[in-house]
Specification:
This protein is an alpha+beta fold and 228 residues long. Helix content is 38%, strand content 20%. Helix 1 packs antiparallel against helix 3.
């Protein structure tokens, strides 16, 4: 297993238990604790095997509680939100080209084809780091997409939005997005999660930890329905 895959697995193992064990209201503390655990696991792995020095992983995750969504992000994976007529990326890439965009040195269109667009500026790799955390209101009808850069780097935002709006079923939506990314020349390690915020009569899904583990190494991660 490649070192990056090891780091990703360690991060998922640290984050996964939140799905079954979190029952409070402090989303940020729960996310920070899990991310700290993930970072520690990566550090311990590197100390046990110095050949893995420098390995790291991006992380974009959401945690649901009541009518709120907690988000943690580091790296170049992305989160998108469809809310009514609005659609947009709700994370900011930790990449060299994003820095150039922020400084006004290149445009977004130029960033999409920049030769160094894959250069990531921040990841989880066992060293002190400060991911971005946020908490926002969850609204019935919201649709979230979490995806790796294997998807977002080859599909335009308009294409992503069209698929998210066209396919009501979360599994079909993920299949469509992954298929589009593969056709556009995306790599084999395309990962996507689509999650809908629905009404109180829909039970909260359980067992995401086991599902995430089983999905490691696959081309896609299917959807979830979260009660508002």
């Amino acid at each position: 297993m490649a070192a990056g895959d090891v780091a990703s697995r360690l991060a998922i193992e640290a984050m996964g238990p939140l799905d079954e064990e979190f029952a409070g209201n402090d989303l940020l503390t729960a996310l920070r604790t899990a991310v700290s655990d993930a970072n520690r696991r990566i550090r311990d792995e590197v100390e046990a095997d110095p050949a893995k020095l420098g390995m790291g992983t991006t992380l974009t995750a959401i945690l649901f509680s009541g009518d709120r969504i907690g988000l943690v992000h580091i790296g170049d994976s992305r989160a998108y939100l469809v809310r009514g007529e609005e659609f947009g990326q709700i994370t900011k890439d930790d990449t060299y080209v994003q820095l150039l965009v922020d400084e006004g040195r290149i445009t977004l269109d130029e960033a999409a084809t920049h030769p160094q667009r894959s250069l990531v500026s921040r990841v989880l790799q066992g060293q002190p780091t400060d991911p971005v955390y946020s908490v926002t209101a969850a609204r019935a009808g919201d649709r979230y997409l979490l995806c790796s850069d294997g998807l977002s780097s080859v599909l335009r935002a308009e294409t992503i939005e069209e698929a998210l709006r066209e396919y009501a079923d979360v599994d079909e939506c993920v299949e469509r997005l992954v298929d589009l990314a593969l056709r556009a020349g995306g790599p084999d390690n395309i990962t996507a999660v689509v999650a809908d915020i629905v009404g109180d009569d829909v039970p909260e899904p359980k067992g995401l930890r086991q599902r995430l583990r089983s999905w490691l190494g696959r081309d896609e991660i299917t959807g979830a329905r979260l009660p508002a």
